[in-house]
Amino acid sequence: MSKITIVDVARLSGVGVSTVSRVINGHLDVSAKTREKVLSVIKETGYVPNDSARNLKRTDAKCIGVVIKGITNPFFTPMIDILEKEIDRQNYALVLRHAGAEEDEADVALELENEKRLRGIIFLGGGTEQSRQKLRELKIPAVFSTIGATLLDENTTAEYSTVSVDDRIEARHITQYLMNLGHTNIAIITEAMGRRSVGHLRLEGYRDAFVMRKIPVDEGNIFYVDQTMEHFSVENGYRTTQRIIESGKDISAIFCVTDLLAIGAMRAIADAGLRVPEDISVCGFDGMEIGRYSNPRLTTISQPLDQISRETVKLLFDIIESRSSHRHIVFPGELIIGESTIKHFVE
Predict the structure, then answer these.
(1) What is the structure's pLDDT at 60?
(2) What is the mean pLDDT of residues 162-175?
(3) DSSP secondary structure letters along 4-66
(4) Class of the 1-49 domain?
(5) CATH for 167-302?
(6) How far apart are CA 65 and CA 119, in angstroms?
């Protein structure tokens, strides 16, 4: 029988990985009913929380911290599963923490390092909210996973490792794909410009595609998500697309910088009495499983999360055990053509 992981507990409990993590770590913002259900599944399955520092003397603990940006983002669920198994194979324990939309990941990491005896840390998602000064307070190696080197301070790239796709190039590719279908009035849904993140890189890729075609970028076609909500949520995609439709702009396609935004966008289009892709084509970015089961199936850029996850752990342990210096590894994305995009004919 394969070892039970936190992802298995989440699935059997009918909740997200973040909820299981919060129950394990004693957070009080989980309902009594949910807490009881999760604890019951843990007992039934014999799952041992991989925050094994609970069961080890602090001086003997061998732990790897994982800080995830975004409390509710299921994009990272398959990655957590692989990271947990790969870290366990090294006889280390995984210590999981979530950083909310407005939290600084470096602050969360420093707090985690103070609580546990960490040998290394992995940052999943997010942007460059981490200041160089705060990062330098970490006394352990760090690898940024799904975060490219271009998001780090240019003076910081030699001090930390990254494993990712090239978000800017892949966003350019999918925008060019829409252009090849005849779309020129392409809206984009992304993050506001308050910080540099993958959303900004994907916006730059969108702009690059227009520059390469010598087509002016219509700034009015750039729509920013509601910053008061989880940035890349389905609901934010829904609400932002409502604004696009209400604007009355002649949009034939929408590029959403994540698949979750795209799922929300497609629902908003349908609720407005329009059709995807006949009236508006929609594409996403990430290659999440949900996109394969949406109706219509989502056109997207797929990230090789299995490879990214395994390489992240391998690289971190290579650095911990002095087999490697810091490196920046880039994997290619893959354009997955679904049913949510169609050729556009100008009447």
Answers:
(1) 47
(2) 97
(3) P-HHHHHHHHTS-HHHHHHHHTT-S-S-HHHHHHHHHHHHHHT---S-GGGGS-GGG--EEEE
(4) mainly alpha
(5) 3.40.50.2300
(6) 8
